[in-house]
Design brief:
Shape: globular
Distance between the termini: 8 Å
Number of helices: 13
Strand order of the largest sheet: 3-4-2-1-5-6-9-10
Order of helices and strands: EHEEEHHEHEEEHEHEEHEHEHEHEHEHH
Strand content: 15-25%
Structural class: alpha/beta
Largest sheet: 8 strands, mixed
Number of strands: 16
Mean pLDDT: 90
Length: about 375
């Protein structure tokens, strides 16, 4: 079967877990003998093509007023104009249709479509191709894709959510099947009128067991880590407050990650220094896991899944996390401690050190690829 996968970014471009999940899916389908091509966006001015781990990857130039992933700070007006164009990006239609005509897929699987816009779905259905969409964030509800604003989770009844989602909701009628990466994100879309003509299911992300070498620097100390965007919604500032409260000769606090695009990094550095948090900057998962003993995820937004949380659990780290979004489901399946036990740990870490050890992992890449493939109906 010929499968054409759309995602805003693909290797080597990456801003979060979605890019990792899409790459694992594409490579998993290749291993099962199917022909796969990925269409993504890049900051260049011309179309380019590459082959990565046997997957054909096409990089299309984004036709909007700027490239949003270069960490450049833009004015509110420019951001507004970018998102207005992205509601229905007619400038991308010709490029999308050309790729469909060239590859002639049996099925199109869309994921993150920021940049392409929901017009992508209409172009696909005009060619009468079966269409599956996987929601990996809240892009269809609001341009910020997190439903988190000014330190709070936004209500789906908020007037701005209603405004930004109205047009996109209408276009979900073109989608044959809708996949959410947790029951939570599936229910949120379903209950709010998205994909009314679609078949629904939830399929957790593929998570291979991380491979790393432990580098214990000081046997008398415990390294407590945070990994992810250094942002409020990811809980970086709350992690800093925990560090401020418990930093001692026994506990070292380490944060790995980069700030949101356009964020003031100087304020992040100032907060980290004030709270005795060492910033690693961008770090691979393997590098991070090799030096930490405990990982804390004080996540504030309604995280749809939580790839990093699962990866750290599979690495047999002590993991603490908020109970938000899809993480509530993960806590029913995995040994993840709630943040309300954090004081108990720091007062007597031995009280929580005995936990279930995962031998065979959570969901392997083959499991998730198989489940997705079954949902394709082939």
């Amino acid at each position: 079967m010929k499968v054409l996968i759309f995602n805003t970014l693909y290797y080597p471009y990456k801003v979060g877990g979605a890019e990792v999940s899409v790459q694992l899916l594409a490579e998993g389908l290749i291993k099962k003998g199917h022909e796969v091509r990925v269409i993504c966006l890049h900051p260049g001015k011309t179309r380019k093509q590459d082959r990565i781990n046997n997957v054909d990857v096409v990089y299309l130039p984004l036709k909007n007023i700027y490239w949003p992933f270069d960490k450049t700070r833009r004015s509110k007006l420019k951001k507004l104009l970018w998102h207005v164009v992205d509601i229905a990006n007619f400038f991308m239609v010709k490029s999308i249709d050309s790729e469909l005509a060239s590859f002639q897929p049996d099925l199109v699987h869309t994921n993150n479509i920021s940049g392409f816009s929901v017009l992508l779905w209409r172009v696909v259905k005009k060619r009468n191709i079966k269409l599956i969409h996987t929601a990996r964030d809240y892009y269809l509800f609001h341009p910020n894709s997190t439903l988190f604003r000014k330190g709070k989770n936004m209500s789906v009844k908020n007037y701005s959510v209603y405004f930004w989602s109205l047009f996109k909701k209408r276009y979900t009628r073109y989608v044959d099947g809708f996949i959410g990466i947790s029951n939570y994100i599936v229910d949120l879309h379903k209950e709010n009128g998205f994909f009314e003509k679609s078949k629904f299911t939830s399929i957790y992300n593929p998570i291979p067991i991380p491979a790393f070498k432990q580098k214990k620097i000081d046997s008398n100390s415990i390294n407590v880590g945070f990994i992810g965007r250094l942002s409020e919604e990811k809980g970086f500032y709350e992690f800093c407050e925990i560090s401020k409260k418990y930093t001692s000769k026994k506990f070292n606090f380490i944060a790995a990650g980069s700030p949101n695009s356009g964020s003031d990094f100087s304020s992040i550095q100032e907060k980290a220094e004030l709270c005795n948090v060492s910033l690693l900057g961008f770090s691979t998962l393997e590098e991070f896991l090799s030096i930490v003993d405990v990982v804390i995820f004080p996540i504030k937004w309604q995280e749809p899944f939580g790839r990093s949380v699962v990866e750290c659990v599979l690495a047999n780290k002590i993991v603490f996390s908020s109970s938000v979004g899809g993480l509530i489901e993960l806590k029913e399946k995995l040994p993840i401690f709630d943040l309300n036990k954090i004081d108990e740990f720091f007062l007597d870490e031995s009280s929580l050190l005995e936990k279930t050890t995962l031998v065979n992992g959570f969901y392997s890449d083959n499991d998730s690829v198989s489940d997705t493939f079954v949902f394709y109906g082939k």
